[in-house]
Write a structure and sequence with these properties.
Elements (H helix, E strand, L loop, with lengths): L11 E2 L6 E2 L17 E2 L15 E10 L2 E8 L5 E5 L6 H7 L1
Antiparallel strand pairs: 1-2, 3-4, 4-5, 5-6
């Protein structure tokens, strides 16, 4: 883990679908909505909340490498693409239903 990583495990209301998201109980940090998988472009480095963009990040793909699911997001503002770990309660089926 990078020394730039700041652990932020916060509850939030998704700005895309309005779903309330609890903090992740497994010890990971929730950085996307468990229901629609959208995220917000708020970090330069994980947890720093220093990104000025602040746009929604749309889930664009899901992959399963080595038995670990990852979600790729594309920022709807600046177009940056990032990869995030999936959490056990993520609604991956919802992603496949809408894409």
């Amino acid at each position: 883990m990078s020394s730039r990583f700041i652990k932020k495990n916060e509850s939030f209301i998704c700005l895309n679908c309005g779903t309330f998201n609890n903090e992740d109980s497994s010890g990971s940090c929730r950085n996307h909505c468990y229901y629609c998988l959208y995220s917000l472009h708020v970090d330069i480095y994980p947890g720093d909340r220093k990104e000025v963009c602040k746009s929604l990040m749309k889930p664009i793909s899901v992959d399963n490498k080595g038995g670990k699911l990852s979600i790729y997001h594309k920022c709807l503002g600046c177009r940056k693409i990032s990869k995030n770990k999936s959490l056990k309660d993520d609604n991956i089926v919802k992603y496949y239903e809408t894409n």
